[in-house]
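Intended use. Records like the one below are meant for learning the mapping from a protein sequence to its folded structure. Do not use them to infer anything beyond what is encoded.
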Amino acid sequence: MAIRSVEELPTARRVAMVWVIVVLLAAIVVGLAGAALILRHSPGPTPRRCSSSSPQRTCTRCSRLCLAGILAAIMSTASAQLLVASSAFAQDFYKGLFRSDPGRAELLWVGVARCSASPC
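Structure written out for the chain above:
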């Protein structure tokens, strides 16, 4: 997943920019669809009333799907942060202070021990 040579940088930049544009456009479409759904189902002239009592009016399946998406995003973020913390501990702290030239397997086990020792 890393760049192997400097010549690959322009291609990687183009791929990243296209991916960001696609994701941001999809987010805009989802936001506009949500706004249209709220405006369509709002009972009164002010759509702001809908936000405080939206769980009562939205369908149960939609609410469950949104909550599942939120929980999945939280778990994904927590997993990524745990991986970064473990890797940073093994590479920076352990390699810098205890052993100057540890093997890959040793760094792996130090990272696993770090993850197992504390969840944050």
